[in-house]
Structures are given as structure tokens and as C-alpha cells.
Amino acid sequence: MAGRKRKPTVLKLLEGNTGHRPLPKDEPKPKEDLPECPEYLKDDEFAFNEWNRIAPELYRLGLLTVIDQIALELYCSQYSVYRQATKIMNTDGLITTNIRNGDKANPVTTMARESAKIIKSLCAEFGLTPSSRSRMNTPSDKPDESPMSKLWKQKRA
């Protein structure tokens, strides 16, 4: 199926349903539990720290459920690859030299670039880019009353 991917309803609600289109009524509602960090990520310092940094906040916003765990795992794993590649580039440099081919780009630059692309696409899935955040409205503690509901309350009183 060609075209733009559907935006999750939670993101539409946080943005204020700017398109004013009807929201899906029969959308699956996964169990709202904070997924636990997988054991294999706990062995990776970068991935584990990123999981602990981002998972609670995504859960608090209602953007993370148990079935989103795999997408978050991929995000954290790719984040770790990116950080490790960047660390290698910082110590070895962007250019490598060998006797046969001379100077060329360090191969980890390709790894960092590919990881960054994957991270960017996964960030969009969770609404983690600056542009997507700027369109979001977080629910307040006290919901605003519409003028119609205020009128209805006055009429009943």
C-alpha cells in the first residue's frame, strides 16, 4: 500500500487532531504497562541508559505499551550502534589510511549514518522529533470546557 503511513491516534490526540478527521473507533488498545528492558540490552551501556531515559517518559505520555517494546528495543539498539560508531570515529578519525588504497573514509562513518537513518525513522514513530513535539498538546489536569458544555450547565442550573 503506497502513500503516507497512518499516524497513531495517541499522537493525533496530543497534537489536537489538527486534520479534524474522525478518529478511529475500533483501534486496538494494547495493555498499558511499562515494558521491562530486555536482558540483552542491560549488557549494553548505551542501549540500557537510553531505555531508562526514554521509556518512562513515553509511557507517561501514553505513547508506549507492551506491544511497542520491539520498536523501542530497535531504537535503543541502533542508538547504541550510533554511539559506538561515533566513539570510534572520535578516536580513529574520519579518514583511514592503508598502504593499498591510500586515504578513505572510516568504515564506521557508514555505520553511524545508517544507524542515524533508522533512529530518525523510529523517533518519528514515537513522536520524538522536535517538529512532532511542537505540534503536540499534552493533556492538562483540568480539561477545558467547550462553550456548548458551559451553556448546557448554565441551562440545567
Q: Can you walk through the features of this model?
A:
This protein has seven helices and two strands. With 157 residues, the chain is mainly alpha-helical. The chain has one domain. A two-stranded antiparallel sheet has the order 1-2. A hairpin with a 3-residue loop joins strand 1 (95-98) and strand 2. Helix 3 (45-60) crosses helix 4 and helix 4 runs antiparallel to helix 5 (107-126). The longest helix is centred in the middle third of the chain and has 24 residues, at 69-92. The chain is elongated, with a radius of gyration of 22 Å. The N and C termini lie far apart (53 Å). The model has no long low-confidence stretch (mean pLDDT 81).
Short description:
The protein is mostly helical. It is built from 7 helices and 2 strands, in the order ααααββααα. It starts with 8 loop residues before the first helix and ends with a helix.
Protein traits:
157 residues, mainly alpha, two-stranded antiparallel ribbon, 2 strands, 7 helices
Structural class: mainly alpha
Supply the number of helical segments: 7
Q: Which of globular, elongated, flat, extended, rod-shaped describes the shape?
A: elongated
- What fraction strand? 5-15%
What ranges have pLDDT less than 50 throughout 5 or more consecutive residues?
A: none
Mean pLDDT score, rounded?
A: 81
In terms of quaternary structure, the protein is single chain
Count of discrete structural domains:
1
Radius of gyration: 22 Å
Distance from N terminus to C terminus (CA atoms, Å) equals: 53 Å
The succession of helices and strands, N to C, reads HHHHEEHHH
**Beta strand count:** 2
In helices, the fraction of residues equals: 40-55%
* Strand order within the widest beta sheet: 1-2
Largest sheet: 2 strands, antiparallel
